[in-house]
Design brief:
558 residues; 4 domains; eight-stranded mixed sheet; six-stranded mixed sheet
Length: 558
């Protein structure tokens, strides 16, 4: 028995079975199956079939069973006659569907063939190029049309696809590298009407789309965001490389000036103060997804989208979309400077600081508070420095890892400290993270720190050991109460009123009497000068304070 779809030009018709196998039906194999449809059958009949592989038959294509025969595929394949009837679906280099179909008579069920694939040509005949950079790119696919990116991908796609006379089209971006991209990719048959999105690097909201144009135009007219498109298919196994953003080094303490000065060509730029880092990929689909992204602590290195520039007035936070959920890299630590001038507790607190932070520096013996601060600023090689004062005992768990926020205007950062006499915890006699330039530009006021832009970090970083000496205890209480009283008279809330009352009424421990004396002397002086700011500023000067105490109490504590 022969089959018309076989080539017998090399078949050995002289073949005979062994005598003891003469009662079998002998089936001869093809290049595909153990049964080619070619048999040697005994005249007397048979009950069993023996399959022979030593005398093979070349199977030929059966065009009646294939749905098409127009691509690079070996159509000589045939089914195993021992199987139930199936519709055999072959895949392509991209999907398990999309290749030829082979149908056996009576078949209703489909069987997918995964080990044999068909190489198909591109389904889409060309691409639409979206220009972010206004460049002509790429050259490995026909560009049917191009358009400038406007605001978001949904509006951009709707505008350009109305001009495309094609069923399927690629939409690509001049931000991406398509050098090795395979534009023959196609979806599975059941996904033909989906909007397919290819990730740009790790960003699933990518810049490359495979689109069934009629379906897209019909669906897109009723939605406001591309994310609402249904059905939407995010491709996971193929990524397109988006070009790295431009890198801009800035020299100021805030990134704001650098953003204002930069002429944005790319949609996203990395601004860095010291060293750039590997960027993440920001979605460009809509403005709220084009976020500012901190890449280092304190935003010392940050991604800024082009959209943000027109929103920024004084700080990057003027732009609504800020992403700080990204785990940032470590930033260069800020310097730590210990400031002392003969205080009795200074050496003990300095040794404690060195144990906790060995990189700390010391400014010692500088007369005059303003000069002491500015001398400390001069020791710093970083844009900010932690100022640790002689009466400050740094707590064990304070790490000096805090970073200033470069998305804002330069400012000082005030940490909380614990008062050992009255239990108050707030920013008095505390550790400050000073901005160097602000320190150098500051003229003396009632309070050096508060005279410039500042913010409070509600973290207890230290204990204020101001009560180890009667004179330092008195002057510390005197100065603090003057400042609190002024703030209260200017309308401060209940918290500051509470602090003022505690300073004047509560103190337990070494030199507690001098703490209460200093606090109440300050209230008396404040009232005597009617809160005149210029008169209050005199307390900033240590010699003035000494003379005031001597005149009032007639004794010398220092």
């Amino acid at each position: 028995m022969l089959d018309k779809h076989c080539d017998y030009s090399t078949f050995d018709f002289a073949w005979e079975p062994a005598p003891w196998e003469s009662h079998f039906r002998h089936a001869f194999s093809s290049q595909w199956q153990k049964d080619s449809g070619t048999y040697l059958v005994p005249k007397t009949g048979f009950t069993e079939t023996k399959y022979n592989t030593d005398n093979t038959v070349v199977r030929l294509p059966d065009p009646d069973r294939w749905d098409c025969m127009d691509n690079n595929f070996d159509y000589s394949w045939h089914h195993d006659v021992a199987e139930p009837p199936y519709i055999y679906q072959f895949g392509t280099q991209h999907q398990r569907t999309g290749g030829p179909r082979y149908t056996v008579e009576g078949a209703k069920d489909t069987k997918f063939i995964g080990d044999i694939t068909s190489t198909v040509r591109a389904v889409a005949g060309g691409a639409v190029l979206i220009k972010h950079l206004n460049t002509e790119y790429p050259d490995n696919i026909d560009i049917l049309n191009s358009t400038r990116f406007i605001s978001n991908y949904l509006d951009t796609l709707k505008r350009i696809l109305k001009k495309i006379d094609a069923e399927y089209v690629w939409v690509i971006s001049d931000l991406c590298d398509y050098t090795n991209f395979d534009f023959t990719w196609h979806p599975a048959l059941w996904q033909n009407r989906m909007l397919h999105v290819f990730p740009s690097n790790e960003q699933k909201f990518g810049d490359t789309f495979f689109i069934h144009v009629p379906s897209f135009l019909e669906t897109a007219k009723d939605i406001k965001l591309l994310e609402w498109y249904a059905p939407l298919n995010f491709i996971q196994d193929i990524s397109v490389a988006r070009m790295q953003p431009a890198m801009v080094k800035y020299e100021s303490d805030s990134v704001v000036d650098a953003v204002w000065a930069h002429e944005f060509v790319q949609p996203v730029v990395q601004f860095y103060r010291y060293q750039p880092v590997a960027s993440i990929t920001i979605s460009l689909w809509q403005e709220r997804l084009r976020t500012v992204v901190a890449l280092k602590k304190g935003s010392e290195c940050v991604l800024i989208p082009r959209d943000a520039k027109n929103h920024i007035k004084t700080q990057v936070y003027d732009y609504e979309w800020i992403d700080k959920k990204h785990v940032p890299s470590s930033s260069r630590p800020q310097d730590v400077v210990f400031i002392s001038n003969g205080e009795p507790m200074a050496e003990e607190n300095w040794q404690n600081l060195l144990r906790i932070c060995p990189r700390a520096k010391r400014s010692d013996g500088v007369d005059g508070r303003e000069l002491a601060y500015k001398t400390a600023a001069g020791l710093s090689n970083t844009d900010w420095f932690f100022a640790v004062f002689a009466k400050t005992e740094v707590l064990e768990d304070f790490t000096f890892e805090f970073q200033p926020d470069r998305l804002q205007e330069p400012k000082h950062y005030i940490f909380h400290s614990r008062n050992p006499l009255n239990g108050l915890e707030y920013g008095a006699m505390n550790i400050n993270l000073y901005n160097v330039q602000l320190v150098l530009d500051t003229a003396p006021g009632l309070d050096f720190t508060l005279s410039k832009l500042h913010t409070v970090i509600p973290e207890v970083a230290s204990i204020s050991r101001f009560n180890t000496d009667p004179w330092i205890t008195w002057r510390s209480a005197f100065r603090e109460v003057l400042k609190l009283k002024l703030e209260v008279d200017e309308g401060a809330g209940l918290e500051l009123r509470h602090r003022l009352r505690v300073w004047c009424e509560r103190a337990e421990g070494d030199n507690a009497e001098y703490c209460l004396q200093g606090a109440n002397d300050a209230l008396e002086y404040y009232n005597s000068v009617s809160g005149d700011y210029e008169m209050l500023k005199l307390s900033f000067d240590w010699p003035w304070l000494q003379q005031f105490y001597l005149d009032k109490h007639g004794v010398q504590l220092w």
